[in-house]
Amino acid sequence: MVRNVYLSVSYVAVHLAYRCAQRGEQSRARILFGTVSLAVSGAAPTSSMPLGERSISTATKRPQNFRSGRAVHFALHFDPADVDDPTNPDSLICRCLALSDRYLACGFADGAVRLFDLTTRLHARTFRPQHHDRLGRFSRAVSGIIITAARLVFATLDGDIHVAAVNNNANPRRARLGEVLSDGALVDFTGRGRWWVGLYAGLPGRAFRVWDGITEEPLFEGGSLTDPEAVMGWHTLTELTEFVGRVRVTSQESVVACTSSRLVVFDLRNLGVILREEDFTNRRGILVGSFDVCNEAYVIADGRGNASVRRADTSEEVCGFTIEQPGRQEYLYSFGERLGEVNALVADERHVAAASGDTNIHLWDFGAQLE
User: In this structure, what DSSP letter does residue 170 have?
Assistant: First the structure.
């Protein structure tokens, strides 16, 4: 019963993406599917995917709230004049989002990261990176965020990585100075536990970089995943593009990454060794914005509308469904709020957050009525 509730939640995300796509927002609407569905269906509890320390009651009620649409909506606000360059409209474009237990972190095109308190829904603080020469309109844009209870780590397209303490207003420290001309664009950045992982595009043989997140020392550089996307990687510095690729770290210390045509998995404990690789060229490609990871599973959708949740270690399918085939969907509900063009979306087992093109940031709390 609990498993069925979790699976039904994935259809909410599927139809949100599909309805947006029908309104013409094809590329950006695809963000919606993966992030929400993995937050729930990817963690579907079965005998081999335990609930951990969560109670059965709470773990069941929250997915039921997702299924029925019981959520409290909040519009999050910050001072639009609080930017480095008030004359630059790109400063208000939110490019990526990340959730912790306490905060929503929002990364903007000017390199700023704003934190919002999930309890008060108020803007808590803003972190701004140390800037150097701009190498394109979006070279300073935030491309990835790692947030924990105590620390915020964020990267920008030009390759800079900054570290900040979450609970004070000290300026972030630059942990790595990007060298975009010799590395390519840092198109995605993620981490888990002791690992930081960056996905680059622009130069052959340099798709991945791995660091020890504790010592901040580089551990690995290499990989050809993004070689075919080299030109697109350079374009990300100057214009809004389709997603070049996405990289995620599983709870089993492995990396799963994809572009529109390929997916690779490699072991962080044996760096450089690819565990598996899959080509999606003959399946109309991967919807990169719909790819995500939850614990030991990942979700992937191809251009034919076939989506599946798989185990990263074996590629065994946990569940599968279609996202664009008429008659094989279960429409549940739509959010009543008008989002417009969606730039980014993130979700966990309680919250869904979205950043829209009109500079609004939306938060839905599916657990508030359980407290």
Answer: P
Name the residue type at position 47: S
DSSP label at residue 145:
E
Distances from the Cα of 341 to the Cαs of 17, 55, 75, 207, 356, in angstroms?
11, 37, 16, 29, 5
Beta partners for 347?
352
- For residue 171, what are its two tokens? 């300026």
Cα–Cα nearest to 111, from 135, 95, 99: 95
> Measuring CA to CA, how many Å separate 86 from each of 80, 82, 116?
8, 8, 21
Report which of 338, 335, 339, 369 is spatially closest to residue 354, judged by C-alpha positions. Answer: 339
- State the chain's mean pLDDT as an integer: 80
Predicted confidence (pLDDT) per residue in 245-297, tens digit: 999 999 999 999 999 999 999 999 999 789 999 998 877 788 888 888 888 88
| Sheet containing 142-147, strands listed edge to edge, beginning at the edge strand earlier in sequence | 142-147, 151-156, 161-165, 173-176
| Burial profile 315-332: b = 16 or more Cβ within 10 angstroms, e = fewer | eeebbebebbeeeebeeb
- Kindly state the greatest CA–CA separation across the chain: 56
Q: How far apart are CA 322 and CA 303, in angstroms?
A: 11
In DSSP terms, 365 is beta-bridged to 72, 351
